[in-house]
Design a protein that fits this description.
Blueprint lengths: L13 H9 L4 E5 L3 H9 L4 E4 L3 H4 L11 H13 L5 E5 L9 H15 L3 E3 L7 H9 L4 E6 L5 H4 L9 H17 L3 E5 L3 H10 L4 E4 L7 E4 L1 H4 L17 H17 L11
Parallel strand pairs: 1-2, 1-8, 2-3, 3-4, 4-5, 5-6, 6-7, 7-8
Helix pairs in contact: 2-4, 4-5, 5-6
């Protein structure tokens, strides 16, 4: 059975995301890290594909997103772009490629865009990186912001718990959101913050606000594809809805293959030349 294919086969652009927010149409967003998955996700009608630095965890087995390199993100970005026809493809700028040095950030951004052929980039942070954001946008590169829980700063936080529950941090988040919009960001991801705060930000900004663990009052949702497909086992945050149990399906299928090989059942006469 074919997946849901959007009636509108035109390429999704940053402008179209803005128009979706204006007419109240929710934006769907998922991660992908490879060609095969990206083809399926795009064909099923997703609006935005994020080549997340979560590849560090999902694809490489690292505990945090910090170890993934610029070269590795370009590799994943290239692989995804080749499999996509319709969705807007955004690549995360990895830790260390833009913090603290505006010119290095610009050089990193240009490399990702030139080598991966992605449509846009995503950066974590607000006021601290606003100069870099402006430089990248001034070079003609679309930027999506990311506030709330910022995994690249996990060693500063020391925990993955909900952010911005206290008034001071919540007000800084709102200020940062306005700064990012003012700098020219085309959208914003809010991760793991109170739903009421996320809804406030989405109402105050004219650009689309995408949530992960930020409630339903925002303009769209993003999940990690391996989590929502149930490939990961034992990761059960409140915000995650599993749409399949591929961990069980794949384990059973591979187990059956092993049995068939061991028992001389595979290959049979029809499966050989």
């Amino acid at each position: 059975m074919a997946g849901y294919i959007s009636d509108d086969s035109r390429k999704v652009t940053t402008r179209r995301l803005f128009e979706m927010k204006q007419r109240g149409e929710k934006i769907s967003m998922l991660t992908s890290y490879d060609y095969t998955t990206a083809q399926i996700v795009d064909g099923a009608g997703i609006d935005v594909i994020l080549v997340g630095d979560s590849a560090s965890n999902v694809m490489a087995g690292n505990v945090t997103t910090l170890p993934i390199t610029l070269d590795q993100m370009i590799y994943h970005g290239k692989s995804v772009v080749r499999g996509v026809k319709r969705a807007l493809v955004i690549v995360d700028m990895p830790f260390g490629s833009y913090q603290g040095n505006e010119m290095e950030g610009l050089a990193s951004a240009i490399r990702i865009m030139k080598e991966s052929h992605a449509d846009a980039l995503k950066l974590e942070g607000g006021e601290e990186i606003i100069g870099t954001v402006k430089r990248i946008i001034s070079a003609g590169i679309p930027v999506m912001g990311h506030l709330g829980l910022m995994p690249q700063s996990i060693n500063k936080y020391g925990t993955y718990t909900v952010r911005a529950k206290e008034e001071e941090e919540a007000e800084k988040l709102v200020r940062d959101a306005h700064l990012l919009e003012g700098a020219g960001c085309f959208g914003l991801v809010l991760e793991k913050i109170p739903a009421s705060l996320a809804e406030r930000v989405a109402k105050e900004l004219s650009i689309p606000v995408i949530g992960i663990g930020a409630g339903g009052g925002v303009d769209g949702q993003v999940l990690v594809v391996t989590d929502m497909l149930g490939m990961t086992n034992g990761f059960n945050p409140r915000f995650l809805r599993r749409y399949a149990n591929l961990y069980e399906i794949m384990t059973n299928a591979i187990g059956q293959y092993v049995k068939d090989v061991k028992s001389h059942d595979f290959p049979n006469e029809k499966e050989q030349y």
